[in-house]
Structure formats: C-alpha cells, structure tokens
Design brief:
Blueprint: H1 33-40, H2 47-70, H3 74-80, H4 86-97, H5 101-114, H6 123-139, H7 146-155, H8 162-169, H9 177-200
Helix pairs in contact: 1-4, 2-4, 5-6, 7-9
Length: 202
C-alpha cells in the first residue's frame, strides 16, 4: 500500500510582493509549491487514507493560495483571484513571468494584441482587463504612447458599440487613454439607462 506523502509546506512569510517583475527574485521555497501540492495528493488504497489525504490537500491548497494572493499587487490580484488552485496560480506565474525576457515580451504583447471586447461582460470590467495588459507591457520596459493605447482600445469595441466607435473615430483630435475611458464610462451608463427605460415601459 502506498502511504500518503506528508511534507511541510514552504514558508512564504518572507515572500517579496509579487508584481510580475519580481518573480525571479522570490524565495526558492516558493518554487517548490507545485511539487509540494502535487505530492500531498498522493493517496493510499484505503478509503480512510484517501479521505485524509484529500482533506490535507484542500487545507494546503487554501493556505498556499491565500499566501500567494496576499503577496500580489492589486493588478496581479485582480487577474488571479478567481483561480481556485494554488498550483494553477504558480504555474501561470511561472509561464508568464519566469521565462527569458524576450519570451515574456512576446507573451504580453501577444495577449494585448489578441484582446477583444464582447457584449457578454461589462464594458468597464473589460477596460480594466485592457489596462492590466498595457501595464504588463510597460512593466517589461516597453513603451507604448498613450494615444496608441487609446487607438488600439478603440479598435477593440464590441459589435453593439460600432456606431459609437465610428463617432469617436471622427473626433478631430487624438484622445488619451483616460479620456477614451471616461467617454466609455459615460456611454455605458447611458446604455444601461436606456435599457432600464425600455424594460420599465413594457
């Protein structure tokens, strides 16, 4: 019979704040996270051992997930708060920030270019996602002029915003990203107000 593996979880109390750029400087103990959590899921053949191992895994996962989220800056926290698995969080961090500089740059630029807004989620929630993607690029030491940031976002509007998109494209001056976001916030509020009015009139 294979006995459950018991292993002390790595101590993350001295973990430096995670912001993506500091990933490589985090303590070595943190890099054992994925291995540790994988090993705690090894179970024996008895139902009792299996149940105990699962309970331990759930406790350890909750503890490690909490440690990682608590050490993240706001931008990373917003990206990872919906991840249920500590191992998944660490693997994603490793893939996203642990590679070579050129690889990371290509990754963040690719995510930025692939971004596309849709009608399924709040516009401002998606704008926040876009801002995070821009922040990732800037954190890699690459510069993006703010007018370019705004113009790229303008091209990412969802289908139902096509008329408003055309209207903004005919602006005689270049908008900064913040100005565009302010316009979008007002327009979304108008959309919601019109929707409420149409529902109440039924």
């Amino acid at each position: 019979m294979v006995a459950p593996v018991t292993k002390t979880l790595p101590d993350l109390s001295n973990l430096e704040p995670l912001d993506g750029t500091s990933y490589k400087q985090t303590p070595a103990e943190a890099s054992t996270l994925a291995i540790t959590l994988a090993e705690t899921s090894t179970v024996g053949t008895s139902a009792k051992s299996e149940d105990e191992a699962k309970q331990k895994y759930d406790r350890d996962n909750k503890t490690m997930r909490g440690h990682l989220l608590n050490h993240m800056n706001n931008s990373l926290f917003n990206l990872f708060v919906n991840y249920g698995s500590a191992k998944e969080i660490w693997t994603t961090l490793e893939t996203r920030y642990g590679g070579d500089d050129a690889g990371r740059k290509k990754y963040v630029v690719g995510k930025w270019l692939q971004f596309q807004m849709n009608d399924e989620k709040s516009i401002m929630v998606q704008v926040h996602e876009y801002e995070n993607l821009v922040a990732d690029i800037l954190s890699e030491g690459m510069k993006i002029y703010e007018i370019l940031q705004a113009n790229v976002l303008l091209e990412k509007f969802p289908p139902t915003w096509s008329e408003y998109q055309k209207h903004l494209k005919h602006e005689k001056r270049n908008l900064t990203l913040q100005e565009l976001i302010d316009y979008m916030r007002t327009e979304e509020a108008n959309h919601l107000k019109d929707k409420e009015t149409s529902v109440s009139s039924l």
